[in-house]
Design goal:
By secondary structure, the protein is an alpha+beta fold. The protein has two helices and six strands. α1 crosses α2. The structure holds zinc ion.
């Protein structure tokens, strides 16, 4: 994953949300990130710190909520959390799996003043 490009998108979203709310400063940014995105929290925090300089989001505190990868078996209907990226049903061993969680990437909330 390209954290810099993703962080630019996040910053754009943060800034447009902040201006919609007539914010003077962005204090907190809460993000939801699925484990399957491969995005590393620290990289996003690092890039955000760099590219937000000179904007109203400079110095904002980022927090991350990680969503574990989950799947649902198409054969037996079993739902499970995926560990170590093993995409097989723990009940019946089927590889016929739907991904139900873990691809999330969105802004949960924004704290502004
Ligand atoms: Zn199954």
């Amino acid at each position: 994953m390209h954290e810099l490009a993703i962080t630019e998108e996040i910053l754009n979203l943060v800034l447009s949300e902040a201006s919609r709310n007539n914010a003077a400063k962005v204090k907190d940014v809460k993000l939801v990130i699925g484990e399957m995105t491969g995005i590393v929290n620290e990289s996003v925090a690092f890039y955000f710190n760099e590219i937000s300089k000179g904007t109203i989001a400079e110095g904002a505190k980022l927090s991350f909520k990680r969503v574990p990868a989950a799947g649902k078996c198409r054969d037996c209907g079993h739902q499970f959390v995926v560990k170590d990226f093993i995409w097989a049903c723990p009940d019946c061993g089927s590889l016929n799996i739907d991904i139900t969680a873990g691809k999330e990437l969105y802004l949960e909330s924004l704290g502004v003043i």
